[in-house]
Design brief:
The protein is an alpha/beta fold. 33% of the residues lie in helices and 21% in strands. Strands 1-7-6-4-5 form a five-stranded mixed beta sheet, with helices on both faces. 51% of the residues are buried.
């Protein structure tokens, strides 16, 4: 079995497009939201959203340009960070994880057609693999290409499957991308379910209301060989589906606990081997309770320190696997595990406190959890061996 190294990474999110700058802002406890007007039945209110700085995609007369600029620039920086040769890039497999795929482009084109009035909007898509194919063409990638869309676990599952294929020798390296931009289908979908927090993102807090969505693009290069920086090994994990119902997990946490326990077993670790947990921590009342119940079962009531980092960049939906992995690994390399902004009051039903101050961090094993809408569960573990 091969080790799997995190060889390169890059991200674009509401805090910027430079890893050093993003982590500096995380360390300072910063976040950056804008207000999105809700345009339904003449109602006059807005909801917060974590937009990428300078993203005017919704009003652009050239909707493709910004969408693809963000995607290609992020992948390019990840490849530069990995120091792969042209031959190595050609041999890469490509994994693309997203909830919305290119829906933002279609929505912008439709809005423009409505504004023009004289145009009839007609559009088609060659399929879910379109964006992965365009990335492969742009960067000369000739390996197998996969697109995964499993709600919030999309790019987390890409990372998990890519690492498994490297570990078993089926591929040598992979470019893993998580990408979701603002789109009205997702925004109004969450708002119609009354799942959007109108005030401050506050996972696990007694007064939490829901999620605040965000845009993000993360690109991670996994390789059987370490990169020039070394550092993190992707140990593996587990993926399973909780079939409790069509939208949510069982509130007793049993499905989540199974996935976490299986991830530990697959990595040859015990519960006491985990330094800290990056929780999914969506901030919705049921999901946070369900996740905590699952962690409590899996760790026999003795939890490692845990934290939710969505208050920094928002819930980037299918991109959160790649985006949050980059934030966690880059933070640990800089000596800290991020705290949970927004938490102030203990929920008696949960009766636990996430990290409210950054925790010193160093070599060790770190668990990252992602639990998607519809019951998909993903847990993986990375090891810092600097």
């Amino acid at each position: 079995m091969n080790d799997v190294f995190i060889r390169g990474r890059a991200l674009t999110c509401s805090l910027g497009d430079d890893v050093d700058g993003v982590i500096a802002r995380v360390k300072n406890g910063e976040c950056a939201t804008v207000c999105i007007p809700v345009r339904v039945a003449s109602m006059d209110y807005a909801r917060p959203y974590y937009r990428i700085a300078g993203d005017e995609n919704s009003g652009s007369s050239d909707p493709d340009r910004l969408f693809y600029d963000i995607l290609f620039r992020t992948v390019s920086r990840a490849l530069d960070d990995s120091a792969l040769t042209a031959v190595e890039i050609e041999s890469c497999a490509l994994f693309f994880g997203s909830t919305s795929i290119d829906i933002p482009v279609f929505e912008c084109a439709y809005r423009q057609a409505v504004l023009d009035k004289t145009k009839n909007y007609q559009a088609g898509s060659p399929g879910y693999g379109k964006l992965a194919g365009l990335v492969a063409e742009r960067f000369g990638v000739r390996g197998p290409s996969y697109t995964i869309t499993t709600a919030c676990t999309s790019s987390a599952n890409c990372l998990l499957y890519a690492s498994a294929m490297i570990r078993t020798g089926r591929i040598d390296r992979a470019i893993v991308i998580g990408y979701d931009l603002y789109n009205e289908l997702g925004f109004y979908g969450f708002e119609s379910l009354k799942l959007i927090e109108p005030f401050v993102y506050r996972p696990f807090d007694k007064n939490r209301i829901g999620v605040i969505m965000g845009e993000g693009c993360g690109a991670v290069v996994l390789d059987k060989n370490p990169g020039p920086g070394g550092g993190f090994i992707f140990l593996g994990g587990s993926n399973a589906c909780d079939p409790f119902n069509v939208t949510t997990h069982n509130a007793d946490g049993s499905g989540i606990a199974h996935t976490i326990t299986d991830a530990l077993d697959n990595c040859g670790l015990h519960s006491g081997d985990i330094e800290a947990i990056k929780a999914h921590a969506t901030g919705s009342p049921v999901n946070d309770l369900t996740e905590f119940n699952g962690m409590k079962l899996a760790f026999n009531g003795i939890l490692p320190p845990f934290s939710g980092i969505k208050p920094y960049v928002g819930h980037t939906v299918g991109a959160c696997g790649a985006v949050e992995l980059i934030i966690i690994t880059a933070s640990v390399e800089r000596g800290f595990f991020p705290a949970t902004p927004g938490f102030s009051e203990v929920d008696e039903e949960i009766n636990a406190i996430p990290l409210t101050e950054h925790r010193p961090a160093g070599p060790g094993n770190y668990m990252l959890n992602f639990f998607g809408f519809g019951g998909n569960c993903t847990s993986f573990i990375v090891a810092y061996r600097n």
